[in-house]
Design goal:
The complex is a heterotrimer of chains A (252), B (231) and C (229).
Chain A lengths: L2 H7 E12 L2 E12 L3 E5 L6 H8 L7 E6 L2 E2 L4 H10 E4 L11 H12 L4 H14 L15 H13 L5 E5 L7 H16 L3 E5 L3 H7 L2 E6 L2 E6 L1 H6 L4 H11 L2
Parallel strand pairs in A: 3-8, 3-9, 6-7, 7-8
Antiparallel strand pairs in A: 1-2, 1-4, 4-5, 9-10
Helix pairs in contact in A: 4-5, 4-6, 5-6, 6-7
Chain B lengths: L7 H34 L3 H16 L2 H23 L10 H27 L2 H9 L4 H31 L11 H12 L2 H30 L8
Chain C lengths: L4 H12 L2 H26 L4 H16 L2 H11 L4 H5 L3 H4 L2 H27 L2 H9 L4 H32 L10 H12 L2 H30 L6
Classes of the chains: A alpha/beta (252), B mainly alpha (231), C mainly alpha (229).
The complex binds adenosine-5'-triphosphate and magnesium ion.
């Protein structure tokens, strides 16, 4: 296989990426490649750089060294490339971040109308389609503050899907939720994985990792310590740090 | 510029009047603010109603109106009283300085009332309970726990009240107090240079505002010292 | 000393003749001041020092000096300068009404831009990030996300500023304008009955304040139903 074939197969590619906040190095020499349709789960202790890494992928944070290529666009300060990448990469946040002044359906319609320039009617059709996919079409005309956390997070997923993204990034999508709402969100994510969406998911839901992930990435202190298929990762962790982390998280 | 030369000392004395006015009114403002907040927080219905009326009236009326009402109103009242004792008296007024400081203090005091009230209610009740639970007396809790917590909350808005206060002192020129704006009017009368003189007044006030802003910043830093992150 | 009811009944209609001027001063300088405030805000948060610094200095000067002094500088002071008298704005600055509008606008614009900035800074960073993540441009993010939320957040402060502005319109009476305050002062000068006249006009001002607060309270309730601070 030639070099360019490898690149085209990898929808996301991080090479030797460093990220600093002032003097503090949040990412140290990160290398990660994600193929089309691959599902990656990222875990690791608090402050290990998980959020920073996935936020670099759609340039909510700017990396300081190394190279990030997303769907053929290298991330530089070129604004056009960034907007192109962002509209192809969906992101779901821990705190939902729904626009509080817009109704649910308007939350979903905003970006397609502004970025994709689709008509209002079409945007509404697409929005309703995805609201049905996440099983809450009846909430369309309510406002975010009137929905439960689990419902809000499903709306956030639907909102990202309306842009028809090639990749979905999830940053701890269930950790702000009450326990009884976690599964409704994970179910939606599992469905998405089954349909072949490329996903990078930061989560500590190890059950989800086992059943859905192609690989599990363990990060600590800004580094990728270990990356393996879930079977291998859970049964046969290589590094001491991974073992310690797993022993802490699996006893919960 | 040379137009100002002969007027430096007048502007200096005028500025001094502003400073005096500021401090007298500041003292009264705090007094009115505390009384107002105390009344609003008290269980006494009459006191509450009076305090509510006070804040509604003084926050909703133009400052210049309060000042003129105060000055001319008190003059008329005083004259009437004086005439009871000596019918030959034609006119008595209270000095503009006092009419001015009272009027300004009543206006700013109405804002301070809300600030103090908010600060009192903003103190975390857990702190008070913790102190009481440790066996600290009510009075001691008030002095050592509530007051320090309160003034930390009140300081930023009160800083803004002080800025409003210093700026309102300019109004007192209207009733003839010889502060900077009044001096400027006299200077204009002889030099015919209104732009120069009023700009100078503006610059003097900007200086006062800067001093107040910097002082409040220092105080805030001092008040929040314990909250600074040590690395 | 007595309280002259007849005088009150007589002077209230006279003072109400000035309410039109009071409202003109209020609404015109509020509209212009709001536009100026938005402009100053955009310059202030532009991220370019040569735009934001002059804006900060402007705001600092106009918030740090008494509005009365600003009115005097513009009305009495500017005509001292020849280029002002020869300039294109002379038709406005020659009239006390024009001067009052200019002064109130410049002053309230400075205060409003700070209020707007408070609103913009109050918008949750996560919401702007969500907008970025969806591929919205900087401008679209500002127009469709930041601005609508910021407006709701700064409504209470805006309403207070409208009341302040309304109170400041009374200072127009110091440059010969016959707004409500100006008329009240004229009547007092003629009758020497400060209590009757000033208290009556005070009641009118209080009603206007009340109306402003009620209106904004209503708008706030309607607009901010779903947006919490
Ligand atoms: N904007 C920022 N400025 C300064 N430091 C930051 C910033 N964002 C993150 N950091 C630091 O970078 C490190 C990595 O943060 P990051 O949010 O990526 O961790 P995380 O693995 O997502 O942790 P968590 O599980 O708590 O979400 C942390 O030490 C954090 O304090
Ligand atoms: Mg994180």
């Amino acid at each position: 296989m030639s070099d360019s074939d490898v690149m085209s197969e990898n929808i996301i590619q991080l090479e030797n990426v460093d990220k600093f906040f002032g003097d503090f190095q949040a990412l140290k020499n990160i290398n990660l490649s994600v193929k089309k349709g691959e599902r990656i789960v990222v875990c690791g202790p608090s402050g290990s750089g998980k959020s920073t890494m996935i936020r670099c992928i759609n340039r909510l944070e700017e990396h300081n060294a190394g190279k990030i290529v997303v769907n053929g666009h290298e991330l530089t300060s070129d604004v056009k490339d960034i907007d192109a990448v962002r509209s192809e990469v969906g992101m779901v946040f821990q705190s939902f971040n729904l626009f509080p002044h817009l109704s649910i359906v308007k939350n979903l319609m905003l970006a397609p109308q502004l970025v994709r320039k689709v008509s209002k009617a079409e945007a509404r059709d697409v929005a309703m389609k995805y609201l049905e996919r996440v099983k809450i079409p009846e909430q369309a005309d309510k406002y975010p503050s009137q929905l439960s956390g689990g419902q809000q997070q499903r709306v956030a997923i639907a909102r990202a899907l309306c842009m028809n993204p090639k990749v979905m990034l999830f940053d701890e999508p269930t950790s702000a939720l009450d326990p009884e709402m976690i599964s409704e969100v994970l179910d939606v994510m599992t469905d998405l994985a089954k349909e072949g969406m490329t996903m990078i998911v930061v989560t500590h839901e190890m059950g989800f990792a086992r059943s859905v992930a192609d690989s599990v990435v363990f990060m600590d202190e800004g580094e990728i310590v270990e990356m393996n298929p879930p079977q291998e990762f859970f049964e046969n962790p290589k590094s001491e740090r991974t073992k310690l982390f797993l022993s802490q998280i699996l006893t919960h | 510029m040379e137009a100002i030369t002969g007027w430096w000392d007048d502007f200096f004395w005028g500025s001094l009047v502003v400073v005096e006015l500021f401090f007298v009114a500041l003292f009264l403002t705090i007094l009115f603010g505390l009384i107002g907040a105390g009344s609003k927080l008290s269980g006494n219905k009459t006191a509450k109603a009076i305090a509510n009326g006070y804040t509604i009236i003084f926050r909703g009326t133009p400052e210049i109106l309060v000042l003129l009402l105060f000055y001319f109103g008190s003059a008329i009242t005083m004259t009437a009283i004086a005439q009871i004792f000596d019918p030959t008296i034609k006119f008595v007024d209270i000095p503009p300085f006092w009419a001015g400081s009272l009027a300004i203090a009543l206006i700013i005091g109405s804002y301070a009332t809300e600030t103090f009230r908010g600060a009192f209610l903003g103190v975390d009740p857990g702190q008070i309970e913790a102190s009481r639970a440790l066996g600290v007396s009510n009075l001691q809790t008030f002095i050592y726990v509530r007051i320090p917590a309160m003034w930390r909350l009140a300081l930023p808005p009160f800083g803004n009240h002080m800025l409003s206060l210093i700026k309102d002192t300019a109004l007192v020129a209207i009733i003839g107090l010889e502060e900077t704006l009044f001096v400027a009017e006299q200077a204009i009368g002889t030099t015919g240079k209104p732009f120069t003189m009023y700009i100078l007044v503006g610059a003097i006030y900007l200086g006062f505002s800067t001093i107040i802003t910097l002082s409040v910043m220092r105080l805030e830093k001092y008040a929040n010292k314990h909250l600074e992150v040590t690395r | 000393m007595s309280f002259d009811i007849a005088l009150i009944i007589d002077s209230i209609p006279k003072m109400l003749m000035g309410i039109g001027l009071t409202f003109q001063l209020l609404f015109l300088s509020l509209a212009l001041g709001t536009a100026l405030g938005v402009m100053l805000l955009i310059l202030r948060i532009s991220g370019r020092w040569y735009l934001s610094w002059p804006t900060m200095i402007y705001i600092y000067i106009f918030r740090g000096t008494p509005i009365l002094v600003q009115i005097f500088i513009i009305y009495y002071g500017l005509p001292q300068l020849e280029f002002v008298r020869d300039g294109i704005f002379w038709p406005i600055l020659r009239e006390p009404f024009g001067c009052a509008i200019v002064a109130l606008t410049l002053n309230t614009g400075a205060y409003l831009s700070e209020i707007f900035r408070g609103g913009v800074l109050g918008v949750d960073r996560g919401l702007k990030e969500a907008g970025s993540a969806l591929g919205l441009s900087v401008t679209d993010r500002f127009i469709y996300i930041t601005a609508p939320i910021a407006i709701r957040l700064c409504l209470p402060a805006y309403s207070n500023d409208v009341v302040s502005l309304m109170k400041s319109t009374a200072l127009a009476s110091t440059i010969t304008l016959l707004d409500m305050m100006g008329i009240a002062r004229t009547i007092v000068a003629e009758t020497y009955a400060p209590y009757e006249v000033f208290i009556s006009v005070m009641v009118i001002y209080l009603i206007i304040t009340w109306a402003i607060q009620r209106t904004f309270g209503w708008i706030e309730k309607r607009m901010s139903r779903h947006v919490r601070q």
